[in-house]
Amino acid sequence: MEMNVTESYDDVLTATKYLPCISLLMPFNPKMSLKKEIDYKLKVAADQIEKEIKKNYTSEKALPVLQKLHHALNNINYNTHKQSVAIFISPLVEKTYYLDIAVEEKIIIDDSFEIRDLIYSKKEIHKYLLVVLSSNWTKIFLGNTKHFVRVTLNVPDNIEAYKNDIGEKIANFSDENKRKEILMDKFLQHTDNGLSLLLKSYNLPLFVMGAPKILGHFKSISHNLKKVIDYIPGNYEENTESTFQKIMQPYLSDWKKILQKKTLNQIDEAMGNKKLAIGMNAVWKAAEQKRGKLLVVEKNYLYPAKQSDSPEIIFKKDDFIENAFFIKDAVDDVIEKVLASGGDVEFVDEGILEQYQKIVLIQYYPM
Question: What is the DSSP annotation of 94-132?
Fold first, then answer.
């Protein structure tokens, strides 16, 4: 990430005399797009901004921000492998972020800018993973609004591959049903191991489909239960891929609900691994230490605060602290810190994080 800050972010937000402010959010992936194509899109956006600025502001107010805008665009880093770029410009501030989140193109010209605008402009990419379990095989699909494709794990997807792999003692069981259940569990364990590796590459909402008995076996052995959004019971042994896709449609109708459940699952998992900072004070400290992987905050949550002598400690504005610096909204500052250290941010509906003091930070796990 590139940053050029000539004055503090909070000073700009609170000083209404410094006009105008520009927020430019653009898809930006030099690894996948031609530099010429990116240059053209940035030029079109810059021309649109310049036209609006000159139309609505005096030359005295327009010139400083336009100079900073052109400086930022002329210093774009095409060697980054990020997905998007966010540029914030005011007469006092020039900031460029390269982010690992997909955004819709957006231009905002106003008397202030909120970094929340960047998060609200994230693309909702409707991707999910579906695991279909049967008594004989496992099939995994990567789906979205248009495509539905089979994914191959690095383990056998048919139970026949494990029949000669069970111990002699188990193979000689006189109880055939017991033997079949042990074989099923072994098959599902290998499937689950492959699924764990897949989820590291595709951190997506997960659905599991199968007969109730098989789902019961899966729940008893899987290490990925906290990743599952929903279970879809039924006998799908003879169904085709197109049928699986149709069956999924009702489960995907409320995508916002799916994403929020996925986020809550991540929070629950992080808490179990003791990698969750809860409440603004703990979140601020972890973000300041660059340990933020995913910040989750309720929409419209604000936290006016005061900075202590230590950069890792803040106090709520209501609490009087001598010699402390005022922070208009610590939530915006935390968002900026998390994005700057390579993390991501998600907003959820009000009340969703009530038990977590409205804001949490999932921290990086050790590699």
Answer: EEEEEESS-B--EEEEESS--THHHHHTB-----EEEEE
CA–CA gap between residue 348 and residue 124 (Å, rounded): 14
Q: Domain locations in the chain?
A: 2-120, 128-253, 266-363
Cα–Cα distance measured from residue 332 to residue 138, given in angstroms and rounded to the nearest whole number: 45
**Sheet strands side by side (includes 148-151):** 148-151, 138-143, 128-133, 206-210, 228-233
Q: Is 28 helix (H, G, I), strand (E, B) or coil?
A: coil
Distance CA 125, CA 262 (A): 14
Question: Structurally, what CATH architecture does the domain formed by 128-253 represent?
Answer: 2-Layer Sandwich (3.30)
Q: Are 210 and 134 in contact (CB under 8 A)?
A: yes
266-363 has which fold?
Answer: 60s Ribosomal Protein L30; Chain: A; (3.30.1330)
2-120 matches 266-363 in fold: no
Tokens representing 308? 């202590």
Pairing of strands 138-143, 148-151: antiparallel
The CA-CA-CA angle for residues 171, 174, 179, to 5°, reads: 50
* Other beta carbons within 10 Å of 365: 10
> Which residues, listed in sequence order, are joined to residue 278 by a DSSP beta bridge?
360
> How far, CA to CA in Å, does 312 sit from each of 255, 285, 305, 344, 359?
36, 5, 13, 20, 17
Which of residues 328 and 210 earns the better pLDDT score?
Answer: 210
The DSSP H or E segment spanning 93 is strand 93-99
For 207-223, write each residue's pLDDT tens digit.
Answer: 999 999 999 999 999 99
**What is the average per-residue pLDDT within 175-185?**
80
CA distance 261 to 346: 12
CB of 122 closer than 8 Å to CB of 103: yes
If you classify domain 2-120 with CATH, what class do you get? alpha beta
Structure confidence by residue, pLDDT tens digits, 37-66: 889 999 999 999 999 999 999 999 999 999
Which tokens is 60 given? 């005295």
Other residues' Cβ atoms within 10 Å of the Cβ of residue 243: 11
Whether the Cβ atoms of residue 72 and residue 96 lie closer than 8 Å to each other? yes
